[in-house]
Write a structure and sequence with these properties.
This protein is an alpha/beta fold. Helices cover 36% and strands 20% of the residues. It binds adenosine-5'-diphosphate. Adenosine-5'-diphosphate binds next to α1.
């Protein structure tokens, strides 16, 4: 099983780790809440590491809707930007698959517009928001792969999975999406 894939000069990789500890990436993506405030999971880890300045910077954009993404500075984080995506709550925000794909697509568009060469994503919506991991992984990877022809600035897309079994699911989805 390969954990990375290169096409059109863009590297896509899946690793195990903490999204708030990716110092080599220009942007990290937050699995945000509508209010763009700190919370549990990814949002808690990112806001804790960024400091209270991040909530202050987010205030002007809140609230956001499912499928939307906004970009801010990264405050005390070692990255240049944080891109905040509101994933769908599974079974509530419909169509969930379309809204989840929109998060990844919008985040990559914002990265392009801001000259971001490297971007790290968590598995949006797969925690508190309850999206089943295998379908979320397929949507994440397929959306990234579909975006490749339009990417000029972005050269490196990293999916950061918290747990070993979550990483396995993403790696299986990457292999399924790229083995044609
Ligand atoms: P959502 O509300 O969009 O479901 P969560 O933050 O609850 O977002 O979880 C999204 C995914 O990120 C889950 O799979 C969770 O296990 C994982 N996760 C939680 N904390 C971290 C972290 N610090 N780094 C990377 N992934 C994380």
């Amino acid at each position: 099983m390969v954990t990375q894939f290169k096409s059109n000069g863009v590297l896509i990789e899946c690793i195990q780790g903490n999204i708030a500890e990716q110092p080599d990436m220009a942007a990290i993506v937050n699995a945000a809440n509508a209010a763009l405030q700190t919370g549990g999971g990814v949002a808690g880890a990112i806001h804790r590491a960024a400091g209270p300045e991040l909530e202050a910077e987010c205030r002007q954009f809140a609230p956001i809707r499912p499928g939307q993404a906004v970009i801010t500075g990264a405050c005390r984080l070692p990255n240049r930007y944080v891109i905040h995506c509101l994933g769908p709550v599974y079974g509530v925000d419909e169509p969930s698959d379309v809204l989840l794909a929109s998060c990844y697509r919008r985040a990559l568009q914002l990265a392009e517009e801001n000259g971001v060469e490297s971007i790290a994503f968590p598995a949006i919506s797969t925690g508190v928001f309850g999206f089943p991991l295998p379908s979320a992984a397929r949507i994440a990877l397929k959306t990234a792969l579909d975006a490749l022809p339009n990417l000029v600035r972005v050269k490196h897309i990293r999916f950061v999975l918290f747990g070993e079994s979550d990483l396995r699911v993403f790696v299986e989805a990457l292999n399924a999406c790229t083995s044609k």
